[in-house]
Structures are given as structure tokens and as C-alpha cells.
Amino acid sequence: MHPLPSPISATRDLQQQLRGYRLTTAEILYRLPDHPIVLQSFIWQELDIAPKYPVLRKFLDFWAHEIEGKLHSVRVASIGIISAAEWRHTEHVAHLH
Questions:
Q1: Distance between CA atoms of residues 6 and 46, nearest Å
Q2: Region 15-36: what's the mean pLDDT?
């Protein structure tokens, strides 16, 4: 079971989404160090900014320098979680009992 995100983390994520970050998923195929003809899949998911994906690029740079499995290919998909049509400022909220 995954723990619930902290309020600070949730606030940071919302602020990032309002600045244009999108939920980004990458399928990373890499070669196993002991069996280079075998490809393994790794799924990575974070908030990132399309189309340059600086967070993903930083992760891939780390992978290339620190992890033995040589990268084969990366497929990326991203979607905006919050858009202008979904997020609006409200002047008044009424509560009904």
C-alpha cells in the first residue's frame, strides 16, 4: 500500500501543474548487463514539461552514467492533468447541510 502524499507534496505538485508540468510516462527499454541481447522494460513516471522533458532527461543522464544496463530506447507519453477549462477561481462557496 502506498502512503498518501503529504500536503506539502500535493501543493508542490499542484503548483507545478499550474506552471505547465504534465504527467509524463516513459517506457525505457534497456539491455541486461549480463545478457546484452535481452531487453528489459522500466516504467518511469513524473511531472515534467513537454516537449523538452528536463526531468526525464536528467533521469536518463543519471541512468547512462550510473546504471550498468545500456539504454536501448525510450517511449514518452504525457498529458496535462489540469487545463484552463478544469481549473477556475471561485469567489464564493456555499455549504448545504
A1: 16
A2: 90
End-to-end CA gap in the chain? 34
Phi, psi of 62 (to 5 degrees): -60, -45
* 50 Cβ contact list (under 8 Å, min separation 6): 22, 24, 78
Give the Cβ contact number of residue 21 at 10 Å. Answer: 21
Residue-wise pLDDT tens digits, 34-92: 999 999 999 999 999 988 999 999 999 999 999 999 999 999 998 877 665 565 666 66
